[in-house]
Every structure is written in structure tokens, then in C-alpha cells.
Amino acid sequence: MAAYSLDELEYWNDKIEKLVWDAGLDCYEQHFEICSYEDMLCYEAYVGMPSHYPHWSFGKAYERQKTFYKYNLVGLPYEMVINSDPCIAYLMRDNTLLIHILTMAHVYGHNDFFKNNRLFKRDTRANLEMEMFKAHANRVREYIQDPSIGPDKVERILDAAHGLKFQTCRHGERKKISEEEEGTVPERLKDDLLAFLAEKGKLAEWERDLIHIVREETMYFIPQLETKIMNEGWASYWHYQILNQLELPQGLHLEFLQRHHLVIRPHQGQINPYFLGFKMFEYLDQQPGGREKIMAIRSEDRDQSFIRRYLNQELCEKLHLFSYSVQGDDIVVTEVANEEGWKTVRDNLANAVGLGSIPIIRPVGVEDGTLLLEHVCDHRELELNYAQETVKYIVDLWGGKVNLRVKIDHNPKIISCSEGKIVNIHD
Amino acid sequence: MAIFKDGNTNSSDRSAWDRKRHRQLVEESIKKNLGDIIAEESIIGQSKDKKIKIPIRGIKEYQFIYGKNAGGTGSGEGQEAKGQVIGKTNGQPGQQPGQGQAGNNPGEDVYETEITIEELTSYLFDDLQLPDMERKKFAQIESERKFKRSSFQRKGIPPHLNKKRTLSEKIKRQKMAQRDKCDSEENESPERIPFHENDLRYCRIKEDTRRHSNAVVICIMDTSGSMDQTKKYLARSFYFLLYQFVRWKYEHVEVAFIAHTTTAQEVNEQEFFHRGETGGTYISSGYEKALEIIEQRYNPAIWNIYIFHCSDGDNWGEDNAKAVALVNQLCTISNLFGYGEITTSSMYGSAISKEYEKQIHLENFIMVMMGDKTDIWPAFKKILDTESGGNS
């Protein structure tokens, strides 16, 4: 083992846990698992789930991360936390003692957030999630091993379902999928392309099941996507508070400050969720009635509402936020955080966080076996190469021709994909 | 109270399966792009162990994403002003879902992978999916006959007796006999247990015939003035493929290079691929030289002879008849005669190609036309078809 012992970790954990309680955080039971560098890469590739169904994309994620680390393009994560009850976090063996202390405090922040945030409470069932992933993995493996199905057919459906995984109900309600309603696109499937395809597509029972598996998983991950800034901000804010009260020896304290600032540093021209979330919670906690307020916010909000409600002019200016657009090959600043511009900056940001960064494609009808879809367009348009490829996935699941209404340079167009996967774009 | 667990250090590598599948997909994507790769000038004339870098597009996971016009939000230093240009896009598609960022996204996955030319060619020819049967056809001369021992049998001739195995069989029997005796409590120890016929083991001998084949590739290139850089480049790519192919098939491949204008001379590989000349064209001169080389060094009874000729077909009229006659002659002694005409300007064949078409009806003569580098691979495939068909 490295320059620390398990006893030391337990010693610091006791102190941290006490401070966590004193601060009024409310956590699931916490389990820490100490793992190797390779294990960490693996957990990362499999979105933290130790038992996940197999698919090549996870192999790709693994290779990619590994290459990135090798060339020092990104640092290894200090930890990985899973929204489950008990809450499981992985600590990487090779890290220093201070990183472990920082990480543990950080993990309790996430743990509290998982347990108390409305989205997680409503849309995930922390005590069952690990089992869900295991059950899914078993089902997928069964299909792969079934001689009448086999890996290739499973892969075809998973590829398609992965490509459409976010085209599902965004508000988390786990709607019952039943066939009581009539009409080509029943009301309950209007904003749920994936469920629509699972129900109406020309598919075998096991194919529908694979789509449901992917859909269930998306449901599990949507709260994390929708609260990235808040969740990371919250955890960073609490590790900062707690470590300041831990009375660390001076050497460790200096290392702590250095690490902390690396984590929450702004990324030039981008939004670092740790930075934005941390600064916002720090600011809000300093306001009158701050502590209660931030507790309520962490329970009630998601990134979009968090930004819309609490990112004010003062914060916008302090964080030097700006909006940009792409004009030709140039990235041009369109609005800065001043008296007249800050609201636009705030709203642009609020609209692009979480699921706001993913276009919405809706089923609108069926004509002669052709599925009609539309891109619900704000001013943002689809990336066409990707759209043309993704439409093919819809054809795979629908089992027939697909027409997608989009806007290209403000003009309405149709991306049409035949059953033989020939794509063309016309008016 | 939190629970600490030291993760098991020897956990199985559970990503192995998915990584393997991913690598397979990457390989498939390499194979799909081989046509493009093979026409890259940089790999032509390289030694087979040289590693070349080829960029491969990562296996994309397509989703609906926003394009460039989506814009975004960033944090800056406070100096930013409206209308200021803060960066360039580099033709990458827009953001990845879940990151409200722009500018320097690692949008497209481009892997660079290093493979040797040898690997590349094996990909290439695997891709052609030649049935095994055909591969044998090219290997017709038995060069070595070896006998290999493999496993044991109870019957055999004395020279194949395997003493060690026989002895161990005997010991087995001996031990068994002893145990039986112990059980039956008879305590007379036998002085000697002789070998029994059932103990004898013989080596099984397998005949291991190596079919060995010799091939010679004679590359003839028109280096006259009318063959400009582009044409020469096409010809070279084409030879490169053929050369790699023949080398892949035969253990021993010799190559002879002939460059001709109005006269022909044998050159080395370096000169062949890199030199330029001017002058008129007598195609027949190249063929005469080929005949001469075959006569001197490669007896058609022993050697598989492949002759390839690339030209733009711009032959001097008075030479045509002679050329046709020589082609006929060469065809009778070679496995395959390939004529590649490079027609960068028009797709109409030249006078000489029409002559060939009219007058040569031999099965092992093949003529292909190449207009640009996309034609190389199809042309090559066409030649292979002839090769398989012509020999059957």
C-alpha cells in the first residue's frame, strides 16, 4: 500500500463523518472501496457500475480513457461515486493521503445530494439500482448466448438504442407502457421516441426488452445529467468546508488548497461545473439565511432552474461569463455579463445545461408505414452528419422508412431514410 | 460509520470482451478503407517491415447533437468584449451531449494506428476472401517432404518403436499388478516383469509435405515521355499491390523490373519506382527484354511467371503488330500476363489496347483500364479473378 494505512483513512473518515453530521447533511450509509488504477479505468468506462451488460462502446471508452491518461490529456478521477443505498465510492489506491481525505469529504457531499435531491428521490430507487444493473446484464447475456439470437443481433439493437438513448421521456416519470390508447402516436408516447419504437416498431420481444433496458438505464442517469453543476458544486463546497475544519497538519493543508483550486479552477471559454457550482453555493451560503436556503436548493432544483433562479448579475460578472456563437470559422463573443447582457448570458446557459444540450426528436405520425419525426427546434439546429447516421438507427428499430423534419439554415427540410438505409435531404 | 474495503487486487479484467469487440470493429473499419490507404504514395516502395501510420476514424457512436450554430457559454477573464473573436473552430461537429462547451472539444475520435506493410497486405488479401482451394493452386511444386512424429499408436514397425513410452506403459502395468497383489494379500514379490506385447508403443508418423513454389514477377513499365507523373504514380500503386500479392502467395518471389521507352533495360526497384525518362515508345522492346530475362534465368517449367505491363498505350503505330505477337508468346510461358492501361485523360482505349482486344484471346491475358486511383483496387480484383479462373 502507498504512504498511508487503512487505519489512517478510518481515522480521518471518523472526523469527516462527524463534521458531516454537524453540518446537517443527511447521507446513506457510506462504503469505500479501494481499487487499482486499472479498476478505476474500468469503473469509469462502465459508468461506475461493476456489473454492467457488455457492449463494445464500453471497451472503446476504456481504451480512450487509457490513451488520454497515457498522454496526460486528462487526470485520473480521484473518486467515483455511485448513487445507491448504501452509497458506494471507489478510491484509487495510488493517491496520496490528502487526496483520499479530500475525496472522502467530497463523496459525502454527493451522497447527501443523491439522498435528498428531488430528481434522484423521484426517478431512481437507490436501494434497487445495483440489482437492476445486474438483472439487465444477465438478460443481455442470455440473449447473446441464445443460439437463435447471438451477439451480432444483440449488438445491432444496442447500437441503435444507444444512439437514441436520450430520446426518451425527460421528466423521469416511469410511465407504464401499455397498449390501452389508440392512435398512431398515443399521447403518452409523444415525448418518448424510444418507448414509441419499442412499442410500435417491427421488433421481436427480446428486441423490445433490449430497448427497455437501455431506456431504464437512461432514466437512472438523467438525474445525474440534469444536476451536474449542482451536484459537483455541492460536493466541492462541502469538501472545502469540511477540510477547513479538520485542522489538517500544515503540509496536508497546503496540499489541500492546491488540489482544491485545481478542481474548481475556471476552464477558459468553457463552463467547469465544479467551478460554477462551487462559486454559486459559496455565494448563496453567505447571503442572509444562506445555510437553510442552500439546503432547500439542493433538495428542490436541477441545473436549469438553479441557474435561472440564482445566477444573478453579480455572480455573472464575478465569474466573467459570456455567450458566444460560431460565425464562419470564428468563435465570436455575442454577449457579456454586464448590465444589459447578463440575462441573455444566464438564459443561454440555463437552456444548454443538462438535457438542454441534447436535441429533442419526437414522433408525430405514421403515413403508409413511414414514420414521421420532427426535431423540436429552438434556434439551434442539428449537426447534419450525425443526424443522417442516427436516423439509420431509427430505421433499424422502426423497421421501415423514416422521415425527419428539421431546419437547415432556417429552412424547413426533411431528412429521409429508406428501409435500405439510403439517406437524402429534401424540402 | 463508513465501511472500508480493500478491493481485491486480482479482479478479473471484465472489460476484456468489450475491448476485443471494439478492436474488431476498428479492424473492420481499417479494412473498409484499404482502397484509399493502398493508393497512398508514401507506402509504395517501402520495405515490408516498415511501420506506416494510418489515421482511422474511431468507431462513432452517433446521436442527435446540435451543430455549430448552437453557440454556447463560457467563463473568461473579464476582458471579453462583444464581437471579439476568441477562437476558431476546426471543422469539428458541435458539442458532445452533456457538455455545454465549444472551441476545443475533442469532437472527432481519430486514432492513428501503426501497422506494418505486411499486416496491411494480409488485411488486404483476407478482405478478398479467396477460398483456400485457390491458394493451393499457386503452390504446385513440392519442395520438401518431411516426416513428423505425432502421437502414438499400438501397432507399427520396429524402427518406429518409442522406447520411453513403451517403458512407461510397462511400469504402469507393473504397478497395477503390485496393487492387485497387495489386495489379495499374497506377498510373493515377482522378480521380474517382462515386457508384454501390449506395452509396445510406436510413433505415429505423419507425412508433412511442404509445397513450395517459386514465382517471378516481371514488371514492365513504360517510362516514355507521355507517361507523366500522375500516370507513373498510378502504375506504381498498381505494381505495389501486385507485388505484395504475389509475395504473399509464394515463399520465394523474385522480381525483375524492366523500364522501356523505345529500348528496354532491366533496372532495380529504386530506379523503377522513382525514375523518369523521356522519349518515344516501342512496347515490344519491353517484351523482348522480358523474354530474354525468362530465357536466361527463369525456366518456365520451374517458375511461376507473372508479367505485368503498365503503359498509357501511346505506342508507335509500326510497333503494334510486333507487340501483339510478343504478348502471345509471353502468354504461353507465363501464368498470367496483365496489361494495365492508364488513361488519365479519356476512358477510350488506345490503338494498342484495341489490337490486344481483337487479337489476343488467351485465358491468362487480362487487360485493365485505370483512370484514377480509385480504379486501382477494382482493376486489381479483376486481375485476381482471371488468375483464379485462368488456372482452373
TrEMBL record, chain A:
InterPro entries: Spore_V_R, SpoVR-like_C, SpoVR_N
Residues in SpoVR-like C-terminal domain copies: 368-405
Taxonomy, superkingdom: Bacteria
Signal sequence extent: none
Domain SpoVR protein-like N-terminal residues, every copy: 5-182
Name of the protein described by the UniProt record: Stage V sporulation protein R
Species name: Pelosinus propionicus DSM 13327
UniProtKB/TrEMBL annotation, chain B:
Low complexity bias locations: 90-107
Region listing for Disordered, in residue ranges: 1-21, 73-108, 148-193
Any Pfam family hit: DUF444
SUPFAM superfamilies reported for this sequence: vWA-like (SSF53300)
Comp. bias intervals (Basic and acidic residues): 166-193
PANTHER family named in the record: UPF0229 PROTEIN YEAH
Family: Belongs to the UPF0229 family.
Full protein name: UPF0229 protein SAMN04490355_101820
Lineage: Bacteria, Bacillati, Bacillota, Negativicutes, Selenomonadales
